[in-house]
Design a protein that fits this description.
By secondary structure, the chain is an alpha+beta fold. The chain has five helices and nine strands; from the N terminus they run αββββαβααβββαβ. The chain has a single domain, classed as Electron Transport, Fmn-binding Protein, Chain A (Pnp Oxidase, Chain A). Strand 1 and strand 2 form a beta hairpin. The relative contact order is 0.23.
């Protein structure tokens, strides 16, 4: 993917919004789901633009992403969808269709199978190149106690950013 000159601004927007939430959307077979994420990273690995997202084993999204080849991260900008991010993050896709329940619109991605969220202003389409379950025995004890006292660890998914663009959202 050629790096657009706006890429640095997009990364700044992504990093500003991520702690407030973004949508991770995955399609596997005929199932799709989106979840709110607040952790992740963006950078260059293997001479490619990459995004790393973390999904706990307990999440419905994990059931999909473990067999998927790609994912999207849709980033609302300027405080847009704040309430929706909270609602999506508080419910499971096992129990309801989040797109219908929270009136968010999935839209075909430009270059991957998983959809994007049409209502978001910044889109990352990613092809999964590597996945790595966390290894609890080598995790810092302070992090273990704070974030994993219930032993519900994450799997880290590294996706090559194959498309990055501003959306109408």
């Amino acid at each position: 993917m050629p790096i657009r000159s706006e890429y640095i601004n997009d990364v700044a927007d992504f990093l500003k919004q991520l702690p407030l939430g973004a949508f991770l959307t995955v399609k596997s077979g005929n199932k799709i789901n989106t979840m709110t994420i607040g952790w992740g990273s963006i950078g260059f690995i293997w001479r490619r633009p990459m995004m790393m997202v973390m999904v706990r084993y307990s999440r419905f999204t994990h059931e999909l992403i473990k067999d998927a080849t790609d994912f999207s991260v849709s980033v609302p900008l300027d405080g847009h969808l704040k309430k929706t991010l909270a609602e999506v993050g508080s419910k499971s896709g096992r129990d309801l269709n989040k797109f219908d329940a929270f009136e968010i619109t999935p839209e075909a991605a430009r270059s991957i199978n998983s959809p994007v969220i049409a209502d978001c202003g910044l889109i990352y389409e990613c092809r999964i190149l590597y996945k790595q379950p966390m290894e609890p025995g080598i995790l810092d004890e302070v992090l273990e106690d704070k974030w994993y006292h219930d032993k519900d660890y994450h799997v880290l998914y590294y996706g090559e950013i194959v498309a990055n663009y501003k959306n109408r959202g």
